[in-house]
Amino acid sequence: MKTLARERDKAEIVRRLRAVRPDNVRRWGRMSAHQMVCHLADAFRLATGEKPVNLVPGPLERTVVKWVALYIPLRWPPGIPTTAEVDQERGGTKPADFAADIALLEALVERFTARTRSLDRKPHPIFGTLSDAAWLRWGYLHMDHHLRQFGA
Length: 152
Description:
- It is a single chain.
- The chain is mostly helical.
- It has a single domain, classed as Four Helix Bundle (Hemerythrin (Met), subunit A) (Up-down Bundle), CATH 1.20.120.
- Helix content is 49%, strand content 4%.
- It is built from 5 helices and 2 strands.
- The chain has helices at 7-18, 33-48, 59-71, 98-113, 132-149; strands at 122-124, 128-130.
- A two-stranded antiparallel sheet has the order 1-2.
- α1 (7-18) packs parallel to α5 (132-149) and α2 (33-48) runs antiparallel to α5 (132-149).
- It is globular and about 40 Å long.
C-alpha cells in the first residue's frame, strides 16, 4: 500500500503534482486544477492542526468507511463530497498565484511528512482520529485521487 511515509511514494506524488498545469481539464467534479491545489493544501492544514476541523457526525464513517477508504486497495471514486473548510467555493482558501500555491502545497507535504511531525490522534473531519500511519496513508490517497482527477 502506498503511503507518504515511504520516500519513493512521496517522490512519485510530488513529481505528479509538478506536472499539473492551471489549464488541466478535470475528469470529474467542479474544481479547477488551481482550486484542487488549494483544496489539497487546506486538507494538509486540517491534518496538521493549522486549520480548525469541524467533525462530521457518523459512527459508520469513523469505522467501516475509514477502514475501506484507507486499507482496501481500490481507487477512491469520483464525486465524494467534501467539508466546507476545504471546499474552495465555500470555506476553503481561494486560489491566488498558481506557482506560489504549488510551492506552498509542496512545503505542506514536506511538513506533513517530516520526522518531527505530530499527527497521531489528530482528528480527520470524516474519519475521526487517525494514527500517524493512517494520516500518511490518507495523504497519499487524497493526493492520488485529485491528481488523477486532473490527469496527473
